[in-house]
Design brief:
three-stranded antiparallel beta sheet, Immunoglobulin-like, 1 helix, 9 strands, mainly beta
Length: about 120
């Protein structure tokens, strides 16, 4: 089950979030062979014009369990002040070549309004 986290970001600002993923035994999750996807939407059913993709990066070494999510100032400037939903999913291929998807984080993002534009 995914962890739930509320996040606040500033409209019109660059955003970078570092996640530290931990296995159930408490050790750092080895992210070798994983890919990631993360989105922000106004609502769960929003159209694509109300959807923003995080850029996802795995810092080396991947065995440290770190994942960085980023939004540009252009993306956050396009968001109206208010509440949004988001989630982060990891995927990998198992030994039978099946794609396994795991949602690791979800929650709400509050965008605070910008005065300076």
């Amino acid at each position: 089950m995914a962890q739930y986290e509320e996040i606040t970001i500033d409209q019109g600002a660059d955003v970078s979030l570092e996640l530290k993923l931990i296995d159930t035994d408490g050790s750092q999750k080895n992210l070798t062979g994983y890919s990631a996807a993360a989105k922000v939407k106004k609502t769960y059913n929003s159209d694509s014009d109300q959807t923003w993709d995080f850029v996802t990066q795995f810092p080396t070494p991947r065995t440290d369990g770190k994942l960085v999510l980023s939004l540009t100032n252009t993306q956050t400037d396009a968001m109206k002040a208010g509440r949004y939903v988001y989630d982060v999913e990891l995927s990998y291929q198992d030994s039978d070549e099946n794609t396994i998807i795991e949602r690791v984080l979800e929650g709400q993002i509050t965008v605070t309004p910008s005065v300076t534009k």
